[in-house]
Amino acid sequence: MIVAAPTREQTRARYPEAEGFVERNGVRIFWERYGEGEPTILLPPTWELVHSRCWKMQIPYLARHGRVVTFDPPGNGRSDRPLEEAAYERSEMAEYAVAVLDATEVERAIVVSWCDMGEWLILTAEHPERVSGLISIAPAIPVHEREVPEYPFDEELDTDEGWAKENRHYWLRDWAGYVEFFISKMFTEPHSTKQVEDAVGWGLETDAETLLVSFRGWDTKEIDPATTVELCAKVRCPVLVVHGTEDELVEPERARSLAAELGAAAVFLEGSGHGPHARDPVQVNLILRDFIASLA
Amino acid sequence: MIIAAPTREQTRARYPDEEGFVERNGVRIFYEVYGDAPTTFLLFPTGPISHSRLWKAQIPYLSRYFRVIVFDPRGNGRSDRPDTPEAYSRWEFVEDGRAILEATGAETALLGGLCHGGGSALMLAATHPAVALGVLTFAPFIPMLTPEHLNYRSFPFDEQLETHDGWAKWNGQYLRRDYRGFLEFFFSEQLREPHSTKQIEDCVEWGLEGSPEPLIVSRAAPPPWEGEEDARALCRRVRCPVLVVHGDLDGCQTRERAATVAELTGGTLVTMEGTGHFPQARQPVKTNELMRDFAESIVPPKPKVKTWTRALSRRRRALYISSPIGLGHARRDVAIAKELRKLHPDLEIDWLAQDPVTQVLEAEGERIHPASAELANESTHIESESAEHDLHVFQSIRRMDEILVANFMLFLDLVREEQYDVWIGDEAWEVDYFLHENPELKSAAYVWLTDFVGWLPFEDGGEREAFVTADYNAEMIEHIARFPRIRDRAVFVGNPEDVVPDTFGADLPGIRDWTQQHYDFSGYVTGFEPVTDREKLRAELGYGAREQVCIVTVGGSGVGGHLLRRVIEAFPAAKASVPGLRMIVVAGPRLDPGGLPSHPGLEVHAYVHELYRHLAACDLAVVQGGLTTSMELTANGRPFLYFPLRHHFEQNFHVRHRLNRYGAGRCMDFETDGPEEIAAAIAEEIGREVDYRPVETDGAARAAELIAELL
Lengths: 296, 711
Known about the structure:
- Chain A is an alpha/beta fold.
- Helices cover 33% and strands 17% of the residues of chain A.
- Chain A has a domain at 18-146 and 218-295: 3-Layer(aba) Sandwich (Rossmann fold), CATH 3.40.50.
- An eight-stranded mixed β-sheet of chain A has the order 1-2-4-3-5-6-7-8, with helices on both faces.
- In chain A, helix 2 crosses helix 3 (119-126), helix 3 packs parallel to helix 8 (225-234) and helix 5 packs antiparallel against helix 6.
- Chain A is globular and about 55 Å long.
- In chain B, helix 10 links the parallel strand 7 and strand 8.
- Chain B is an alpha/beta fold.
- In chain B, 51% of the residues are buried.
């Protein structure tokens, strides 16, 4: 695949009313705030492969009906790129969110997450006073034991075909190759060139060295199933799980199990991949709006 | 206006699961409970001018999601009719509602009401906040809150008036003298939306089940409070969520009052434009949606797992809604579906249909959507409306309005959950009517099929029937003119010449011209291949060469017993004049063959397998005037006698016109043709070589082509 090089950021439909940095343990996190009034919607980051622009299809719409806060993860966008692994801990991510909510003077927010690896479940479970509802798009939170990956992450491999690209040595050798491969698995829907280009562009705003600080395979990023079950038991607010049936990065079964564990509502998007909010923004925006309205 | 006399209650779409009385101070109040959902939705009646049937368009839908309780007000319906002013204090109605909640074990409830009942709901919520989950109030009547509507202030109620024109009818003496006159005036003023004849008739009928006395006596009832400030304080005491709905043409409660209620309760005000005092009756679909949405915003439904399929991942799907009125639709619809699959082999077709259509579909291996099981049955209703060889089909369809709303709501729930490319409605009256009434609900291509256009009156229905049929036609014409985007295809199952040469009514267009402008014509759809070798077929069916076979059938309906008896009476005389006569009477699924008289040489069967083959092989058929059977006989070139049902405008006008064009059949009159005439006609017609206009055999393919263009 040949994907165009990232260029300057394209024109936004809406620019933030306020932006700023919040510092926690020496790490500066960049945030943006859009719109006014309640409810407040927090659009937190996902894996630092991408940054807050991944919510570009949601922000202008949601900001018409309330306040929207988003921020960049450590390691990408305008946030710092710390070299300490602790700065990328799941629980630390949740704390960044609390710091951003404090900085933007948000008491409580409805959290809309993408590919949550446990950090937003932690936020919801451990800070119930700050979260009034959770929508989890394509959650990667494991309820059951994970499958062992096909290729070891740290070892030198004799192939770089397919998922063998998810490997420390390949990352360092051809970061762009990995990003393009991974993003192509994210958008399995036909005719997704623009969504792929966008996400590849964001991936190239960071680098292998930064991601390697905290990544040695998915089990180093995702919380473990026992923690999931423990956290789920603490969640009191309404939860909605949204997942594409053609998601090649996270099997829809995880969403099904998570919804069952939480007693949550679920919407399965038939034919959708891992980034439905980017690829089917209208439908996802309507799903978000309806859920948000139901919490009013 | 002349409004038809009240008759027995029309068929309901849903009957209560429980009913009972509560007694307060010697006054018994009748209530009904529908469904057993965990959340109770109590719908207050208005004052004694009406009763609980007011909610007939809501009950079947809401009871799918809530436990719905309605009751008759003191002074009407099955509740008692006390005669003291005190018994009609506004607080008595409120307490009646509360007593019913207690009697039915509801600790909390959503409260709904209209006008007087809308006030009751608010009064209960204000005084018993622990009971009220939310209040949905239409045109709330809260006395003294704001000035009364001008209509009530134009003339004194208690004085003798020189005139009783207009609102001077709101007068005690007039009410006692001509209550019907008052009700007709009052409800016509409150249902100011055009084409509201049925809703007005309903309201007048319910009003006449009560009397003017409670309305007059209650004026001396103790007021619920002293003045405006008390009324405002009451509204302020309401703590639960409130939704106020008000129609801008309301002639009973003012917008100012509705807005004040919303303001003081902190509620939401929804204005329905172009709407009068009874949105629940005249705009039932929108009202039902408002009610369910409001209720679910307070009591959210259990979390569910849903699926949405992205556009390009969707399989091609059609939802076929086949009317069960007149049994002929099933076969032609199956034929069209088969042709449609030839053009789009990947097309999945789901059927929303009910018995007896589903019997045909099941035999054909078609997929019947599970929601079909929840449809309120239309054919049972139609049958219940029939008398001796008599079915006033226009009135029967009007008296099916509750069933039509209920079935449309079911359709709506279904198409909200599942995506179809096209909805095909073969005389699916509810889909066609309510899509035009709620055009924003159309979310797929839509095809309308019919074999007749235009409601036609009978002379014995007088001016009123002529007026009402024309009014129905006029509304349909306006619907099509205003929202041409609703019907992507309108297919007339027949040819332009099959359309009757009449007009839609006074000052309305000619039916044939209008239909040619607004329809495509598929030609007739028989749903089967015509028989080519009749001798072979006769041999297969065991009919001897010398036998003269006469088949007598009334299709699947239960209306035909009288006709069968009369034809059987003619059998001896016919047998005498037709050597070799073999008469086979088919009673059908709804009539007991054992209950029919017998004669030597006469065969009576409950059921004949593949009856259409016997009809193709016979020497004569005796049938009712239904389109399907008579056109089957026409297509196969068989002589037949047909007896249109009395007051069945379709059989008497539309079908008869079509058969005349084909030169087919001999029309008989059940009124005047006795056994003698029938025997003579049998003798004349049996075995006769006919010269009918040929019936096209490509109708299903042509209809399918018109539909396929949308896929």
